[in-house]
# Entry
Amino acid sequence: RLIRRQRQMCKETDNKLRKELQKLDQVTLYIILLKTFGYGTEEIGKLLGMKANTVSARMKRLRKKLKKYFF
# Structure
């Protein structure tokens, strides 16, 4: 029963995350993808034509939003 409940919780969390990711704009998705591949804030800014501070601000807003839904 415990394992079944854990699987259900993971599935629910996965569905929530998918829904939230679908709401994001394309630039924010690119930032997430580039961060996942190990790019730094400065590098991402240069690749996307924005300031590093803008990249950091977007990441901060995203973390805040996800924390609201998951914690």
